[in-house]
Structures are given as structure tokens and as C-alpha cells.
Amino acid sequence: MTALTLSTAAAPGLRADAIVIGVAKGAKGPVVAPGAEAVDKAYDGLAGVLETLGASGAEGELTKLPAPAGFKAPLVVAVGLGAEPDPKDAEAGFYAEALRKAAGTAARALGGVKKAAFALPVDGPGALEAIGEGVLLGAYTFDSYKESNRKAKGARAKKGKAPLGEGVLLGAKPRDAAHKGALARALAVGEELNRARDLVNLPPNDLTPESFAGIVQGAAKEHGLKVQVLDEKALTKGGYGGILGVGGGSAATPRLVKIAYTHPKAERSLAFVGKGITYDSGGISLKPAGHNETMKCDMAGAAAVFAAVVAAARLGLQANVTGWLALAENMPSGSAVRPGDVLRMYSGKTVEVLNTDAEGRLVLGDALWAASLEEPDAIVDVATLTGAMMVALGSRTMGVLANDDAFRTAVYEAAEETGEPAWPMPMPEHLTKGLESQVADMTNVGERWGGGLLAGLFLREFVGEGISWAHLDIAGPAFNEGGPFGYTPKGGTGTAVRTLVRLVELTAAGELG
Q: Taking the model in full, what pTM does it have?
């Protein structure tokens, strides 16, 4: 795990393996960003040197060059911040997301380095937090299954680069309460988001509903949280037909996990519900070849919910937060749910299953109703739910649906504020006709067009009356199949963790709902 520390030291005299500075894209070429004045002076005009090397300051650009004489660090890493803030606006600064991406880009490029100092622009606690978060997220690696990490004698595989060992944040005030708070938040959110990434990246033969529940129990014990695990016997006794139906085809039996954080002074409560399909084959409606290789990520919603609850506890936020993880493995077998079967959900509603690959909404339906019975002030569910949302919004943006326009806007704005691309989506009432069934209360699928919106309408049926509810469809951004960029690695991304933590903060401040 990469360490984070604060320092008031000047870059030239700091013992480190590298100094990271920011470069903005100015109207006439690269511009050295605030925080790197001492480095700029030592080069006697660093902007000109960078321009000669082809640097422009564009976002994601990275240039390495030898440190000037007299520096204790041998390397300077110049990372692009994007467009320069308006020099005529004295209060203009770099957006937090630009700092987060720049720090992440540099941290990712410094794999194998023990210590790097980040001399990026710091104009307050928010900037400091963004830089720290970017360092932790950019330095992330998942190589637990690499041969090079085995301690077996005689392993011949080439050892990969370890993540950056320590990130020193310059321009900070180690004794300032606001700066210490910014560091604490960066650590809690960054480390828990990386925990979510680890879970998404675990292979499905090692992450089953049972083992996932065990991981949650371990974290709950560590952080003083309450946890309850319903196994298949308890689910059967309770009448959780959706979760049982989806998990019925697998030897790995389903679970419903409840993890709760309470604050003694909390006046408001928030419930998070996460889809936790530890592997999705599609069931009897089997996915075609080429569509199931990454389906270990279908539990990313549950991972995000779990991580967010733990982060809220670590930060001591003044709100009560409950996470519900609906865990199952969707497999075809003689005991699997069939197209045409009717399931009685935990709420009592019956659902005719027309497509067993539309399973996420079935497990979420049970969990949403369980969450509703506790009457929280608001519920937010997170799920890798529909390919239709990816068609609509691409691979980096999550859709936000809700039963209340104001609440949808609040959730959308929280996502954008934390640097998680999102877009508010409608729930047209006319689509509900597609959920009509001749034999049950409703079907689990409807017409093809607007499938992501129809899924939201289905979920709304399992939210208690009078409760504000939002649905985050993270099917696109939950798993990055392309190359890494900014602070985002290939594989599990931890999408929605930052949004959920921000929603808890807003709830604690009485600004949500």
C-alpha cells in the first residue's frame, strides 16, 4: 500500500527518488504550475526546456528529465494539468479532478520507485486531498496471482515493478487541522476504493458469495461495524425469492449481507444497495462467446457499497449508513431458474422471468425491499445492470435514475463533484407497459429499446413508499478493458465509491434529501 505524508520541505533539498511538478497548457506554450517555483528557478526557465522536449501541458502528458544540479532527487517528472486557469482571475485555480488525474498519471509512471515528492498546486485542503487521492489511485496494482509474487523457491518469473512506496505532498501544513483532515479523507477514500478494485479483480473461483461475505465480516470486525449474513437457509425462511432464484443454479450458494455504521449523534440515515453477482454466465439465457470473460466484475456495485460504508466509518461521518450486498452466482444447471419461471420476491410481488440474464434486478429487488423496511431517509443502489446504459453513455459514464427529480440532481451533482462522470436519465412511464405479465405481477424484461431505463422502472417497484431513491448503473465504467489512463487502471475501477461517500457527507450535513 502506498504511504502518504505531508511536508513543508522545499523540493531541492528533499531526499526522494523523484520530484513531480505540474505543467499547464498555456496560450503560448507550456506553463510551469504553482508549487514548482524552486524547480523552475533551478532550470532557469523550465517551460522553455519542456517545450523543446515536445511538452505542451496537455492532460495526461508526462515528461521525465534529470534534476538540476544541487537537487537531492535525481529525477523531475513534469505532468500535464490541461488548460491553464485564467491568469486574469486571481481566484482561479486548477480543478480538483485535474490535480487528481495528474497525480495519478505520475504515480502510475513511478512504479518501482520508493519515494516521490509531489510539488503540484496546493491552494487549500481540497487540492491537497485531490492530489493525495490521485497518488493512491494511480499507484494501485493488482498482481496477487503473478508468479513473481509467490514465495516458492526457484520461481523464475521476472519480478514486476512494485507500486510507488511513498508519496510526499509538498506545500502542505502537517500540523494544520484542515490539511490533516484532507489527508485522512484521501487515505480513507483512496484505500477503500482500492479495496473495491481488489474485489472486482479477484477471479470468481476465489470470490464466491460466501467468501465475499467473509471478507465483509472481517472488515466489520476491524472497524467496529455491525454485520448480518443471511445464508441460503435464512433466505429461504425469509422468502427472498429473487436472490434464491438467481443463485439456485450454482454450487456457490447466495448470500444477503447487511453491514451497518451508526453514529451516536446522527439524525439522518442512508441505505446503499449493491448488486453482487460474483460471476454472471447469463444462466439458462447463456451469454454468447466474447461476452462473459469479464463477468467477474458483475459484483462491482456490491464492492462499491461495501467500500463506501467502511470509508464512512473511518471518517466518522455523522450519519447512519447501511449497506446491503445482494450476492449470488448466476449459473446454468438443472436447478437454475428457467425462462418462464415465476419468482415470488421478498416484497410479495411475483415476477415472470423471461430472461435469466436480467438477473441483477432480481437480487436488487429483494435487497431494496429489505432496505426499505428500515425506513431510511434515502436509498441509493449501485449495479452493473444493463448493456443498454453502455450503449447510451459509453464506457466511462454512469447513468443516474431516481424516483424524485431533485434527488436525482443531487446525486448527479455529487458524482460530478467527486470526479465520477455521470448523466441523469429519465424513467418514461410508458415503458412500464413492457413489464406486464399474463401470469405474474410483472416480467423481468420488456421491450429492447430503452433497456437501461426500463430496468430502473423495474427496481422502483421495490422501493418503499415515500423514500427517496436513486439508481446508479455503472455497467460502463466499473471495469476498464482498455489501457490505463490518469488514475484509472486496467480492470476494476472502484466506480461509485467516491459518489457514495460524498452522499454520506451531504446527509450528515443535512444537505441531501
A: 0.96
**How large a percentage of the chain has pLDDT more than 70?**
96
Of 250, 330, 247, 346, the closest CA to residue 285 belongs to 330
Q: How many helices (H) and strands (E) does the chain have?
A: 14, 20
CB proximity list for 87: less than 8 A, separation 6 or greater: none
Angstrom distances, CA of residue 349 to CA of 365, 366, 370, 443: 10, 10, 13, 11
- Going by DSSP bridges, is the β-strand pair 18-26/75-83 parallel, antiparallel, or unpaired? parallel
Task: Report the alpha-carbon distance of residue 222 to residue 224 in Å, rounded.
Answer: 6
User: Is 268 considered catalytic here?
Assistant: no
Residue 177, all three cell numbers: 487541522
Write the burial class of residue 334 (CB in 10 Å: 0-12 exposed, 13-18 middle, 19+ buried).
exposed
Tell me the Ramachandran region of residue 491: left when phi exceeds 0, alpha when psi lies from -120 to 50, beta otherwise: left
Which is catalytic among the residues 146, 180, 287, 460?
Answer: 287
pLDDT of residue 512: 87
User: Could you say which DSSP state residue 57 is in?
Assistant: -
Give which of 501, 365, 371 is closest to 441, Cα–Cα: 365
Q: Please give the DSSP secondary-structure letter assigned to residue 404.
A: S
Catalytic annotation, pick one of 185, 195, 361, 498: 361
Q: DSSP H helical segments within 21-88, as ranges?
A: 37-43, 46-52
408 catalytically annotated: no
Q: How far apart are CA 322 and CA 302, in angstroms?
A: 12
- What is the DSSP secondary structure assignment for residue 440, as one 8-state letter? S
SS3 label, residue 267: coil
Grid cell for residue 409: 440532481
Q: How far apart are CA 364 and CA 103, in angstroms?
A: 36
10 Å CB burial of residue 123 (0-12, 13-18, 19+) is middle
263-320 pLDDT per residue, tens: 999 999 999 999 999 999 999 999 998 889 999 999 999 999 999 999 999 999 999 9
